[in-house]
Amino acid sequence: MCGIVGYKGKDEACDILINALKKLEYRGYDSAGIAIWHNNKIAVGRKKGKVDDLRKVISNGNFKGTMGLAHTRWATHGEPSERNAHPHRVRDVVVVHNGIIENYIELKEKLRNEGHKFASDTDTEVIPHLIISHLDKGKDFIEAVRLTLKELHGSYAVGIMREKEQIMIAARKESPLIVGVGNKEFFIASDAPAVIDRTNRFIFLEDNDMAVFRDDEMFLMNTDGEKVERKIHTVNWTGAMAEKGGYRHFMLKEIFEQPRAISETLLGRFKEEKGQVDFEELALPDLKKVKKIWMVACGTSYHACMIGKHMFEANLRIPVETDIASEFRYRNPILSENDILILVSQSGETADTIAAMKEGKRNGVYTLSICNVLGSTLARDADGVIFTHAGPEIGVASTKAFTTQISVFFMLMLHMAKKLGKMDTDEIRDMIAEIKKIPHKIQTILDHISPLEELARRYMTCKDFLYIGRGIHYPTVMEGALKLKEISYIHAEAYAAGEMKHGPIALIDENLPVVVVSPRDQTYQKTCGNIEEVLARRGRLILFTDDPSHEMADRVDAVFTVPETIYELLPILCVVPLQLIAYYIANLLGTDVDQPRNLAKSVTVE
Ligand code: F6R
């Protein structure tokens, strides 16, 4: 949560920072601020609301200079307001921060005893006060910052400047921060898309790294005061990928990007003649010894794990446990040496998923992350990583991340099936052929979306929705319901279809739309039974199926048909219309689709 950006170079910083901040808005958008250094003066502007509201504050011409910092906030400590917005300034020091300072109460107390007075409710404000405290004791700026960082418990990504010196300092611990290296200019940013239009060369700072920008140079050290070296990586994302490209919203663009995104996920993985899916780079443990696979994630990525479990258990016959990352460590999971822990995350920075990885590492299990963002914590710190290659996902509601994660699970399952001798070459070849057809099949859905827009118009005024599905379609409907609630603010609940009779059936009447996913597979007959139960109570059914002659088609309110595929891949095809329905309803209701209220894309607090 919270987006940070910084610039030190030859051009005017203000426009660069505001443009970059706009691209980080998905990380938080309840207040924003900027600080520009010029001739030993720092101009600070802050505003409750979005980056566009901040633009009004800085339109007075006072924000001129070639070095600066900016921040977009998702409130953790203290309500969204101007006084709690970053940058926080104490005397001549300004700080922007993402993360949580866990010992801020204790530090505040200590600083108050030294005579410091606080102007906000945030944890962040202790940082500039601590720096001032060290400066007052005669330390130089860099040393004052280093000593301050050593005192902080919790997580931080920070950008810091001081009026008296033309120096900018960035540092991170357990919150993302990267350094962009341009032509005689440097950037700091919470992630690459923010500044990708200016550079594609990045240093991924590691925990306890400090980057010091002085004169035309940058040097790296750690909070122990030692010099460190980090590699410069070239990222193959482009500026256009982080733009809307003619779509009304990023979410819609990202839904439509799914055929291309999945093609990228699959690229270079198959050796079809050998019936093989290549993940040799992973150095997985001896699969024959693996007793259990764990799949852990949050939100949409967790739903992908639930689908992964269905695929793995059915085809590999290895027990799989899925867990919501925020719950994982509290139940003291019984991890054994020969287990594999798979962590799934679009951002690679979700705090609870990182904590789950640490739990796995503490227990000596092999950790494998499935991530979209290069250089992210989960991508770097897990024992192995598979990138989804979906391209930047900017809409807060996850779409292409989900379908690419499922694609990775499918390929990994085939890779393991081969190693374990669970499938023969022909079976694997057939399955590879199926997934290769998926991008085209999604395109077919996307080419016929007008019935979904029509459905959205019919149902947009409903206050509640029930989503039901069985087997692998249960996580699919959970994902559909999550999409609807997060962007339209309509209450939507997902149930395993068989669970309906155990309570939620009491909700059904002529006003409640029930979304059901019922393809012609092993779940078909039983789900038809559940549809009957809804019809008997005059419920309004919206059916998603791959079967144009579904036996319930004439009796439900509406039917949408997706192309056929194998059981394991049906969630990819069935979720696309569910994403679109949610999108169209939200769009008709006029909500902020890309930045829904109360949310942030990258949840870097536990
Ligand atoms: C929902 C959504 C969230 C994320 C969750 C995990 O649309 O985007 O539920 O899926 O916050 O995020 P990552 O995948 O970045 O770990």
Describe the structure.
The chain is an alpha/beta fold and 606 residues long. It folds into 3 domains: 3-243, Glutamine Phosphoribosylpyrophosphate, subunit 1, domain 1 (4-Layer Sandwich); 252-442, Rossmann fold, CATH 3.40.50.10490; 448-589, Glucose-6-phosphate isomerase like protein, domain 1 (Rossmann fold). The chain has 17 helices and 26 strands. The strands form 5 sheets. An 8-stranded antiparallel sheet has the order 3-2-4-1-10-9-11-14. It is globular and about 80 Å long. It binds fructose -6-phosphate (F6R). Residues 298-301, 345-347, 350, 353, 397-398, 482, 486, 602-603 line the site of fructose -6-phosphate.
Brief summary of the model shown:
The chain is 34% helix and 23% strand. With 606 residues, it is an alpha/beta fold. The protein has an 8-stranded antiparallel β-sheet. It has a 6-stranded antiparallel β-sheet with strand order 5-6-7-8-12-13.
Poorly predicted runs of 5 or more residues: none
Strand content: 15-25%
The order of strands across the largest sheet is: 3-2-4-1-10-9-11-14
Would you tell me the structural class of the helices and strands? alpha/beta
Shape: globular
End-to-end gap:
11 Å
List bound small molecules.
Answer: fructose -6-phosphate
